Amino acid sequence: EIIPDPESGVLSVHSITNFTGNKTIKITLLNNTVETPFEITLACVQYTVTMDGGEASLDETTWEHHAKGNTGAPVYIKTTDHAGKTFDHWEGSEDVTFENAKSETTSFTMPRKSVTIKAVMKWNVNFNMHDHGSVTPNPQPVTPGENATKPANPTAAGYRFDDWYADEEFKTVFDFDKTAITKDTTIHAHW
């Protein structure tokens, strides 16, 4: 849609999306009953979507780590191999609003600039019982920077549970209230 300003005569182009290369528009202006034909060539500017931990697609069939899209076009995203981690949410450059930031597959509308999109994964917290106890606490997916939840004290026939430790040498007691998880972590049961 091309809209002329009634006072200045300047033309504004609106709502031309989803084209590549150049687009030529033929216009005829009427000024005091004189017709003036001319052409305008618009160059399409495509912006880049750079993915960290996922892939992007403009058509939901071709998936790439780097995609190019026009302003206003829908961009579909999905996570890729988690390497044993649990997906938490999507983060993106400003001006990116996800349809559902908590879904592993979602979409957003391409803004008027290149953007970076990141799949934020939770870290895995595992528990090593050191061959004691009949029940190992379930692994915990923890959002980066948050704390793991202390499981119930385990039991083992013929052993007394001492505490949870941050290391296999049992030198540092693991503080569930103060230790932010910043990587995959194994917490050790000491008997």
Defining traits:
mainly beta, 191 residues, 7-stranded mixed sheet, 0% helix, 3-stranded antiparallel sheet, single chain
Distance between the termini: 75 Å
Structural class: mainly beta
The major β-sheet equals: 7 strands, mixed
Shape: rod-shaped
List unreliable stretches of 5+ residues.
Answer: none
Q: In percent, how much strand structure appears in the residues?
A: over 45%
What is the CA-atom radius of gyration, in angstroms?
28 Å
Average pLDDT over all residues = 85
Run of helices and strands: EEEEEEEEEEEEEE
Our count of helices gives 0
Number of strands: 14
Helix share of residues? under 10%
How is the secondary structure organized here?
Elements (H helix, E strand, L loop, with lengths): L1 E3 L6 E3 L8 E10 L2 E10 L2 E7 L1 E4 L8 E5 L3 E6 L6 E7 L12 E5 L5 E14 L11 E3 L20 E3 L19 E6 L1
Parallel strand pairs: 5-11, 11-14
Antiparallel strand pairs: 1-2, 3-4, 5-7, 6-8, 8-10, 9-11, 11-12, 13-14
